[in-house]
Amino acid sequence: MFKTLFNRAFFAQRLYRIYNIRMNHNTAAVLPRLPVPDLQKTVTKYLDSLRPFLLEDAAHGGPSYEDAFALRTKWADDFVYGIGRVCQERLHELDRASPDNWLDDNFWLKSYLQWRAPLLINSNWWLVFNDDPLHPSEEDLVSGFTEWQLQRAAWLVHRTLGFKDKVELQELHPVTTRTGVWIQESVSKMFNLARIPQRYCDILSQISSPSDPLSCNIIVMVNNWFYAVRVYDPGPDNSRILIPAETLLARLNVVVHDAATRAECAPEIGVLSADDRDSWASILQHLLSISPQNVKTHEAVVNSLMCLCLDRENHSIVLPSSSSSLPQPSSISQASLDSHLHAIRSVPSNVSNRFFDKPYSIIVDPSGRAGAMGEHSPADALVPSIVGEYAVVQHVEMTQSFASAEHSATNGSWSRLEWVVDDESLEAIRAARARAEANIKNSDDSLLWFEEYGSDWIKSVGFSADAYIQMAIQVAWYRTTGEFTATYETALTRMFNKGRTETIRTLSVESRAFVLAMTDNDNSISSETKWDLLRRAVQKHTSLTRDAATGRGIDRHLLGLRNMLRQGERSELFDDLLFARSQEWRLSTSGLSAGHHFRGTGFGTVYENGYGINYLAAPSMVKFGIETKFSGGNTSTEVFKDAVYCALREMREVILQVPHNKSTITHEQLIISRL
Question: Which helix (H) or strand (E) holds 629?
């Protein structure tokens, strides 16, 4: 009787959902195709982006600004009316032959997959989750696997996959809106696939079919062992049903017990995925060749939904107190904050308990502190941050602990995935671990919580919060290095079908003028002038952001044009040393959401003498994740944090001193002034 009622209710709900999907499909929003930008406009904007470099060169004894700019203008004209026009026509032809667009189908994904650097720190992003309200007190924190750790892990996985299912069923973000179309497309690329290493250029696996039994599993990593744990059970009519969090908790308990009681140590296969891509490709090919078991295991990992990494060591309080002069975060010590960050990024004790090729991995330590890390190429970091926020926003609600769970982890609901290794594999593991530990040791990585004001106050005085923060980063860079550098900020082109990102070139004539005014040593520049220059810099940055987000940016277009050159063809525009210098992103930056549910975020710097900076602009605070390399020589995360903090303070002081009067600076003065 109960089973009959259950089936009727299930079918009624299923029919309702199918009806909604069909109705929504009939009224689905259609995203426009990413355009090929206008050639003349791209080149004109590119020339404008060179102005601050030429002004700096002239100010330090180089060629005059006028002569240098005139030369670049000649090269630009030669390009537009010569080989550039041919390249533009070829790009249009390529676009017409591309299913989705000229960029994503041909260049952009390949730019990720061709990069040979290790994914560890250099490419993968990381998110540091807030603690759950049920988080134990500091004195209760221990190492070793804990009940609370497994409870939170089960809950986070359940919430994550619940979000995925709701998006697929259009219960969240239906495709009747453009945002819904973008989220549907983007979230689908976070699950059931992986990056696969190959010599010279990696590939992405195909998203596994829902009918594939492997697609119903997550990979749980415990003590470096790989386990496949089923999270979707068979339902009526060949459907699949997401298991309750309590059921997953019981299965995790059995898996952890199996890993903890094994006499032998697992081969550290995970650390191989942290190595440079060619080394990983070579040893993976070897592993697949020595045993069909390894082929099966790798296939199970690739086709699984996602990874769950259960760490044995508690990283909550392992770092010494910081000697920084900055104010301590209000609700947590800086040492605890950074140790949490590092555990998610990876540290020597857990780097082999990861599989870096998966787009989404949840990480939970014995204290229940958690975060996520993922491979960057399938989806941009905003997408996993949306998924992560949904998982974290609702605190753990478990009706039973694993000690009293009625749900059993039956045979077939989990399996240990074995790797067969030989002496060559073990030697590769030892070498990969040594390189991974060196990369981790070289990473100078920390979080900064600026809590004196946030986006609400910035907006209240008439500025874009993102542009304002970018100007503070520019001031901090110049004060700590004494020079300017090309700066990359990510803009999403999500309004277009299969749109990914475009570059916002933060360094401009306007931002340079503001920075020089803020570093005036003899106090000869008034607060009114500084405010006016800030206003102009923010306006310029806002305009650049708008262009980038609406398909009128320049860097992706320049990439496409260069790729259209054929053997023997060249252009002075691209051969110019300043072309490469203007794309040397020693400042690589990106803003996400307000980050209410994250302690911080981060990614690695592109250049060892630069910074990778991710920030969360909340209403009353701004959180920065900053990474550089100790080997960079003249960079330091602690020094840069202090410079950002001081810049944000001083910018507010300037604004508060000015009655926001009309501009007093002419455009000509702005262009030619060295200040």
Answer: strand 622-629
